[in-house]
Every structure is written in C-alpha cells, then in structure tokens.
C-alpha cells in the first residue's frame, strides 16, 4: 500500500547509473535555478520606490541611478561567480569557496547562513504565492497556512520525482514569465515612444530634492539589491549540469544575468517613464501593465505568471538546499543521511527536511512572513561577501597569469556586498537581529556534529595488522513463560550455538513456580531452569537483575546472549492480543546492558 | 523523568501481597460502587414528571404510584442480586451469571452490553458534571470538551492510584450527598407537616386525567427506572471486598438499596406535596430545596454536592469496567493485557482504555451526550434481564431446598426488566437503535479474539513426552560496511557461536568494492567476505536477497542468524547522526524472513 502510493506520487526507483540522465541542460537548469533570481524582478523596483516616496514624488527619479547601480552590482556578481565556477568545477557555492580559502569556520558561517536562507526562501515564497491566491479568492483567506503548506507539499513531491522531471514542468511558468515581462517592456516602451503615455506624476530627472541624504539613497539601493538574491544558486549546483558542467553552468549564469538585468532595468525605466508611484494595494508591475495594455487579457496573463513565478522562487531553494546539505554532510558537519540519494536520485532527505522546516516556520508565523524578508536578504549577502573574499585570497595565493583583473572584480564585489550587508544591519537592525541567534546556533550544531563523527571515527578505527577478531565462550539466557513450541524452538536454536544455555522463569506465586519446576523436570529438555520470584508483577525487572548477575560473573570469559522469542502474527491487529513483553525486554536491554540480543521469530500460522 | 512523574501522580509501586490491603470495607465500597446508583436520585423523579406533564399538571399525581412501582422494582433487583452474590462469591456480574447458566453467547451479550454501558456512563457523567460547572461559570462554556476530558483524566489518575485511596477521597462527596438529600427530605417533610407549604399546582391524588394511556404510564415508569442504573455494580465487584467478601457485598448492596429507595421515594413525595412541575431551567431537586430552605447556604450546599455526585457517577464505571474486562480477558474474549495488575494493583489497562474510549466519545459528540442516555439505560436493562434469566435457570437446574421463593423473585425481576427493555425499545427506538450496531460488533470482536487465542494455544501446545529440543547447525551472516571495531566485535561474537560465519558487503560502485576486497584480504579475519553490488543505492534489498538465498540453501540443516550491530549512543540526539540501516534491516527481516536476528550492541564512549 505505502509502496504503491509512493510509486504513484514520486515514480519508480531509478538505478544509480541513471544519474547521468538526470543531469540538466542549460535551458532546464535556467528554469530550475533562476526562478528565485528572476522572480525578484516582480518586486525589486518597487522596493526602491517605496524608500524614495518617503521624500515625495519628486524623489522618484533617483530610482534610475539606483537601478543602474544595482545593475552594476549584478554585473560584478555574475562575473565574479563565473570565475568561481571555473575555479570550483565540482560546485563552488559560498561554503566551498570560503572554506577552501578562508578556513573551515568561515565556510560554516557562509554555509549556515545559506541553509537558513533557503528555509526562509521557501517560507516567504509559499506565503507570497498564497497571498496571490487569497487576493483572488478571498474566501480562502482563513486557510492561508493550509494552502501554503499544500504548496510546499506539491514542490516537495515534484522535487522528490527528480530534477529533470521537475525542470520540465517548471520551464513553462518560468519562460512564460520572461516572455510576459518582455512583452510588458516592449509594449510599454512602444507606447511611451509613440507618446501615448501621460506622465501621472512629474518627477524631472536631476532635480535636487529637499531632504535627500546618503542614508536614504543607501537604504533604497540596499532594498533594490534584494532583487539579487538567488544569483548564487547556479554556482552551488554545478554537479547537476550536463558535461561540460562548468562551461554550461557559466553560460547559464550569464544568460540569467542578462535576462535578469534587462528585465530589472526595463521595469525601472518604465516605472519612471510612466511616473508611477508605489501604491498600497497595487504593485508597480500591475500599474505599468494596466497603463500599457488596460485591464484586458494581456494584463491578466502578466499578473498570473507573476504570481506563479513568485511561488516558484521556492523551487530554487529545493534545488540548492539538498546540494549544500550534501556538501556539509560529506564534510561531516551535517548528519550522514543528507548524503544518501533517494529512489529518484535526488537527495530526498534534504528535500524533506527543507519542506518540514519551512512548513514549521509558516505555522509558527501563521503564514505572515513579511518580516522575514530583510533577514532573508542579509542571509544572502553575508555568504556573497565571504565567497568574494575567499576568491580574493585565492588570487593572491595562487597568482596565476593575469590574476589582477579577476582579483579586482572580486575585490569590488566583496566591498560592495560587504557594504550592502552593513547597510542592511544599520538600516533594518530591528528585523535582522535574529541572524545573531540563528547563525551561531547553526554553527554550534555543525561543530557538535563534526565532533561526534570524529570521535566515532577514532573509536571505530582499527589497526588491520594487529587487531583481529578474538572468539570467547558464550552463555545464552532464554526467558520462558511456560512449556510451548516457542520455548522448544528457542532452546533448539540456542543449543545449536552453545552448550551453555540457561532458561529463566519468572513466577508471581509459589504455586505457579512449583508447577513450572515439576513440568520442566518432566520435560527434561537438557537445559537448566532458573526460577525467579517477582513481587511487583513485573517480568522485566527480575530478569534484568538476573542477566546483570550472569554478565558480572561471566563477562570476562563469555559473551552473554539473551534469546527473545517474537511472535510474528498473521494479521497486524493480532499484535494487540499479546503482551509485548519481548519488545519491552529488548528496549530495557538496549538501554542498560552490554548483552547481545537474539530475536527468534515464531511465525503464527493462523 | 517519566518514572518520577508517574510516581508523583499515582504513587510508589506496590507488592503483590499488598493486594489484601487494597480490599474495601463496606463503607468505602458503598462510596466507590454506589455513586452511579445514588446519583440517579438527582434526576429520577424528574424523568417521571417530564413524561406526565405532557398531559398537564393534573396528571402529576401519577408520579406517586409510578415511584412506588420503581421502588418495587428496586426491591426485586436488590433481592435478586443479593441471591446472585451468594451464588457467585467470586464475582457475579451479569456476564458470569449469564455465561454460567445460559451459555457463552448470552454471557457475551450481557458482558458486551455492560462494557459499552460503562463507557457511556463515563461520557454522560463527565458531560453532566461539566454542564453543572459551565452553568455556574458561563465563561467556560467554550471549553466544555476540554473540561470533561480533564475530569476524566482526574478520575483516571485517582483510580490508577488504587481503589482504597480513591475510596477514601470519594467517601466525602458521596456521604455528603446522602446527608444533603436526607436534610432535604426531613426539612421538606417538616415544613409540609407544619403546613408551611403552599401547593403551587393543584393535582389531586386519584383524579382521572383525560388522555392518560398505558403507553404513557409505561413510558413514565421506564424513565423512572433510569434511576436504577448502577445497581449491578456491587455484584461485579465482590473480589474487591474484604473477607468475608460475599457477606460484606450483600450487606453493602442492601444498604445501597435502602438508601437509594428512601431517597427516591422521599424526593417523589416531596415533589408531589410541593406541587412541583418540571421546569426547563431548574431541576426538581433545586425547586424543592429552594421552596424548603430558600436560596441560602443549605440550598447551595445541596446543589453543590448534587453536582459533585453526578460527576462522580462516572467513578462506578471506573471500578466496574476493569473488573469486567479482566473477567472477559481471563476467558480469552479480550486482550490478555486486561489481566495484568499495574503498579498500584489496579487493572491499569482497563482504567486507561475506559478513559480513552469515553474521551473519544465526548470529543466525537462535542460534549453533547444527552442523546446517549436512553442508549445507556437499555444497555443496563439487557444485562439485568439476562442475569435474572440465568439465575432462574440455575434454580431450576440445581433445585436447592426452598428454591421456589428465590426463583419467584428472579422470575418477577426478569419479567419486569424484560418489559422495561421492551418499553425502551418501543418508546425510544430513534435513540436506542445504535445498540443493534454496537452490540453485534462488540460480540464479533470478542469471538475473533477468542478464536485467535484458541488457535494460538493449539499451535503452541507441546507433547512433553515426545517433543524435545533438537539442535541443528548454524550459519551467521554479518553485514559489514567497512573494517572497524564494530565489525571486529561482531565477528568475534559470531565466531564464539559457530565456525560458519560469512561477512557481506554491499557496494555501490566497482571502485569501493575492489578497495574493500583488498583491505579485507589484508586484514584476513578468518571469515569469508561476500560482495554484492547495489544498483538502487539500497543496502537492505540486496542483503535481503542474499539472506533469502542462504536460507533457501541451508534452512533444512542450519539456523540462519543475521548479526546486526547497533550503536548505543551516549546522547539521544546522536542517534540522528547514524543511518538507521540496522533498524530498517531488522524491520524487513521481521516482516519477511524466518531468520534469527542477533543484535550486537556497540556502546559508544563519547
């Protein structure tokens, strides 16, 4: 039943060598890895305008130089990550680059920051997608949390099916969104060029505005930079690309940079040209679209695919989180289970853990995740900075021919992303202070896990030359409750292994004890019977005491094995009809004793 | 932690021989066993009046002859159950008497009916108690279900502490209630005798009333009979009495009968004398009390203890259900776990199961259990009837000297309770039809369980004379993942038991397989290494296949044992850091194979 349901939902298991077939072409990779970055176009310009409007409509023209600055930063990031891809062809996320060049602790800061960030991405995107749905269908408003969780569930199943399948499905909305935005930019540009647009608000370019300060400009710039989250996804995911992986990844990154940059600056220019100011109940994109095309079919097409892409931004995290978790687990900073590929060759555990943690975040916040956005942005820019710093160190150390140019690119990138991180910290401290709790906690967990694995390796390491197996004697203890086929079966088995077998009976009163002793003598199975008396009607406690004694007496020379019979019933409900003494006994023995436990199944025929 | 909490809530474990100390004196038994019956006084008269008032106030005088008829039935029931107590000194509930005289199926009808009934009792009483609380404190009205469940939880803990302790606590409200009702009857009688009462409604005794029919009189009578539920509790619980158990039980029953009868007829007479008609928002008892004493301290005392006793009625079920379940389990109609005495010598499993089922009933019905009351009444009168019929059969079969008198008593009792059952069926079919689903279901479950236990006994039975243990050879299979101390430990252990040991390694690719083979040769532990290749990254599946093959080849001559190492970590969270392959392997092996599983603990030091 469970197996069938699983097959239906995620498909048949795949062989390991099919991994190569699961690799992504450039077009598919762009769909899977860029939805987070591209979706930022839907709100990037608006974030800038929201800061500027506080100084009045006249200040809105600043959005143009700020957008150009963001575009510059995007260029630097893309170029710099392109360098990283070639330098780390087996996957060069911020974690790897920082670890490799700046030491493991710095790597963990970058890695931990990104992990937390991916969880935030999923929670924020699913909530944003839900808001889009509930705005359209207000009756669903009371079920926001349930809808967001259903969305996460859908993405989880899609990703468990494997990356190529999810890529095939995701390509459609991602490319439709790109088409929609270009239709908007071209249509809007045409309308403006042909003079069909009446500027709603006068905001002459270059006019000095009263009250403008560096602080506000920086705040607007840093808000605009939230459009750049998701750019690092490609460099993390190089192993998912078809060979030549690094070249394909680099090309995909460039494609993404060009598309993202064009869409972002296009929207910003249109917003300025149309004199659009941010409104509480209508997005900037919606305003441009309705001004350009009216509220017709084109408008609704643009709005629908925008909602879709906002929701799909979460999918970037579903591609990136399991890979990062895999890398951290390979370095023994996360549990081993994140290194295991599932039935469909994805890192299923990473996918499932991401889904659970983001669902918890949604439940805890009641689906109201807006306050998490700044946290999410700083969680991206910290690893950006560390990654660039790592690359700088690398150029200085290796000094390959012509290293000055890439070093300069990385230095500019590092300084810019560092500045943005600091601006975030200063301008939005009330919303990002949680990072100072999250990050140290995550890093402490990483280190604890690593310590445990290292201790374990030390403990388990063996000197092949000298340490060989050394057999000892063996005592087998069989708890018996009467004389039945089960007991006969157990004794037969024990006698096959050793001559030193002892049966133990726990009685509650003299009568039953005497009866058992008499019957045992009569049966005479060739095994000594030890009788214990229980005052508290517990079978397990006197048994444990007896086993303690046996162990204490013989542990030096013998292995002590306790033989526990286990009924295997035909129907599951029959299990309810048996005192689960054997389960209890096993649990106790595991917890306290160093004895071995042999479970002898007794399969009931009826 | 858990142990400490348990000790705090239910007290220290008690030795088996302390069972005698847990026996009940007559006064305590009355408190534990009569709360259900006595609490009926609070609503019995009212039930009669509610039927009569449909014909107008003039019909209310019929409550007197009807009450006398109920009193007559009470006398018959008490006398008849007194006979049962002496006939079945080890506990003669309806189940035992019916089973013993009328066959096992009839016994199961009686037993099943009572079991369902006890669950209803708890649900109905807890809801009634909750209603009393929320009437006083309306702000709690939205939390009715939670309050009712808290009440059940309190009763559960009280009963898990043991019956003498719960009796000591329960004596107070039960006896306060008796005192309160007698104060009411004496005070009310005095007021009436001294002529201080003005009759509110004229209802002259003996006046013919238009529209009166036998149907209505019977309906009123059967409603009044709901006051008799709980009378059978004493005869079920004889084993809980101090010796001489049957004499003490008989005396307790008589005491209960006298108190119940006096209180019931007293309330009925007062209600008539005061000309009280039932009101929607005030109980009959409350009307009498306020007419007699005004709304002063005496009035509130009476109301408070009435609410308390209504709630405590549930406790009778907590005493009776586990005992009945024990008897059914002893006869193998219910799971064995109901025969086990807990730490405090009560049948804890019965107590807990009753609590859970009644809590579910409350949750399902949303705390609105009024509709269950008729179901609950018929669930009592069916076993009443069967019990009496059983006694009749007994007298006829045994014919002891002077059997005619007790036979007559039982015959009258049987005919009366049968009639009442039929009246319930006819007059309240819409509310009691569920019994035709519940009862057959419960009986079918009983029979299924019995069948399983009988099959099991057949299967496990052994011929002591001829069937002796017969040792065979032994093969031990050790799954290995590398060469570590764990593997060395496992091989040492296996070699202590047999010479036929084989290690199995599951590899995912050629490289790791070759490396393992080379290293194994170098180590040379004296055990052959078998190498399997897994295409689906599953370790368990290839292993299972291999074990299948080994079993198929050797099962006739050898026991096959799979040796599974189990890490015992120092901190519980460390368990998360290990692939739980051994758990998974064990689960698979249990489900499908007849191999033995030896778990070798490896205790990690750090």
UniProtKB/TrEMBL annotation, chains A, B:
Any single GO CC term annotated in Swiss-Prot or TrEMBL for this entry: membrane
Keyword DNA-binding recorded: no
Location in the cell: Membrane
Record keywords, A-Z: Membrane, Transmembrane, Transmembrane helix
InterPro entries to which the protein is assigned, alphabetical: AA/rel_permease1, APC_K+_Transporter
Superkingdom in the source lineage: Bacteria
Lipid bilayer topology: Multi-pass membrane protein
A Pfam family it matches: AA_permease_2
Any one GO molecular-function label of the UniProt entry: transmembrane transporter activity
Main localization, broad class: membrane
Name the record gives this protein: Uncharacterized protein
Species assigned in the record: Aneurinibacillus soli
């Amino acid at each position: 039943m469970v197996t069938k349901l699983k097959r239906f939902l995620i498909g048949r298991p795949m062989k390991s060598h099919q991994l190569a077939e699961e690799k992504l072409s450039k077009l598919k990779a762009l769909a899977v890895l860029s939805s987070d970055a591209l979706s930022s176009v839907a709100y990037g310009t608006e974030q800038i305008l929201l800061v500027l409007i506080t100084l009045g409509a006249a200040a809105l023209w600043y959005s143009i130089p700020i957008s150009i600055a963001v575009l510059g930063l995007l260029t630097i990031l893309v170029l710099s990550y392109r360098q990283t891809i070639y330098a780390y062809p087996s996957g060069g996320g911020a974690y790897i680059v920082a670890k490799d060049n700046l030491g493991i602790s710095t790597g963990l800061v970058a890695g931990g920051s990104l992990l937390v960030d991916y969880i935030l991405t999923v929670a924020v995107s699913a909530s944003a997608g839900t808001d889009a749905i509930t705005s359209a269908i207000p009756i669903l408003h009371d079920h926001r949390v349930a809808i967001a969780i259903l969305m996460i569930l859908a993405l989880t199943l899609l990703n468990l099916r494997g990356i190529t399948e999810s890529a095939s499905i995701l390509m459609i909305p991602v490319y439709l969104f790109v088409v929609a935005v270009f239709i908007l930019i071209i249509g809007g540009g045409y309308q403006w060029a042909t003079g069909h647009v009446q500027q709603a608000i006068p905001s002459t370019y270059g006019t000095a505005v009263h009250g403008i300060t560096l602080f506000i400009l920086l705040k607007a710039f840093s808000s605009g930079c939230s459009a750049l989250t998701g750019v690092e996804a490609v460099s993390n995911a190089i192993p998912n690309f078809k060979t030549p992986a690094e070249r394909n990844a680099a090309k995909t990154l460039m494609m993404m940079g060009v598309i993202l940059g064009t869409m972002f600056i296009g929207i910003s220019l249109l917003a300025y040209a149309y004199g659009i100011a941010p409104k509480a109940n209508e997005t900037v994109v919606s305003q441009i679209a309705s001004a350009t095309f009216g509220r017709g079919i084109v408008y609704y097409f643009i709005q629908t695919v925008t909602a879709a892409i906002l929701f799909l931004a979460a999918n970037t995290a579903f591609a990136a989180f399991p890979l990062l978790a895999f890398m951290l687990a390979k370095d023994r900073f996360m549990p081993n289970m994140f290194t295991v590929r599932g039935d469909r060759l994805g890192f299923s555990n990473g996918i499932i853990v991401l889904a659970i943690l983001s669902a918890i975040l949604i439940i805890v916040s009641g689906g109201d995740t807006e306050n998490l956005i700044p946290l999410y942005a700083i969680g991206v820019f910290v690893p950006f900075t560390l990654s660039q710093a790592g690359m700088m160190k690398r150029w200085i150390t290796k000094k390959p021919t012509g290293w000055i140019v890439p070093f300069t690119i990385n230095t500019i990138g590092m300084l810019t992303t560092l500045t943005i991180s600091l601006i975030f910290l200063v301008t939005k401290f009330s919303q990002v202070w949680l990072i100072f709790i999250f990050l140290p906690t995550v890093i402490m967990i990483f280190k604890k896990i690593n310590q445990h694995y290292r201790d374990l390796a030390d403990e388990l390491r063996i000197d092949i030359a000298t340490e060989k197996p050394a057999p000892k004697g063996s005592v087998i203890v069989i708890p018996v409750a009467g004389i039945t086929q089960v007991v006969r079966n157990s004794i037969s088995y024990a006698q096959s292994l050793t001559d030193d077998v002892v049966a133990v009976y726990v009685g509650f009163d003299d009568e039953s004890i005497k009866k058992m002793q008499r019957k045992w003598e009569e049966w005479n199975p060739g095994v000594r019977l030890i009788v214990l008396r229980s005052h508290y009607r517990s079978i397990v406690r006197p048994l444990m005491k007896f086993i303690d004694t046996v162990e204490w007496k013989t542990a030096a020379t013998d292995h002590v094995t306790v033989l526990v019979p286990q009924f295997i019933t035909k129907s599951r409900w029959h299990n309810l009809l048996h005192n689960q003494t054997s389960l209890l006994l096993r649990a106790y023995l595991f917890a306290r004793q160093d004895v071995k436990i042999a479970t002898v199944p007794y399969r009931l025929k009826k």
